[in-house]
Amino acid sequence: MSYIIEHKGKKIELPFFGNIPTGVIRKARNVNEQEQTWFILEELLPAKELAILDELPLNEFAKHMKAWTNGISLGE
After folding, report:
1. Could you give the C-alpha distances from 9 to 12, 20, 39, in angstroms and in order?
2. pTM value surpassing 0.90
3. Which helix (H) or strand (E) holds 57?
């Protein structure tokens, strides 16, 4: 299962939030809260898909992150 973000005809496929490898979450625990989301995304996605994320307006990015995580803060 995955979460798909579409922007300008391009797709990003994130794994279901509950299926993120434990090692990624373990490493993210040492990163400050403001950086955790980016750390995880940079671990999961290739540069080409990160470039698509970079094009998203901030409000759209925030909407997708909330939906992907089901509103759970990474620190919880």
Report:
1. 10, 25, 25
2. no
3. none
Q: Look at residue 24 in the predicted model and tell me its pLDDT.
A: 94
Q: What is the pLDDT of residues 32-62, one digit of tens each?
A: 888 999 999 999 999 999 999 999 999 999 9
One DSSP character per residue, 7-76 reads ETTEEEEEEPGGGS-HHHHHHHTTS-HHHHHHHHHHHHS-HHHHHHHHHS-HHHHHHHHHHHHTT--TT-
* Residue whose token pair is 């970079």: 54
How is residue 4 annotated by DSSP? E
| Angle formed at CA 27 by CA 23 and CA 33, multiple of 5 degrees | 130
Q: Which stretches of 1-76 are assigned E, i.e. beta strand?
A: 2-7, 10-15
Going from N- to C-terminal start, the domains of the chain cover: 2-69
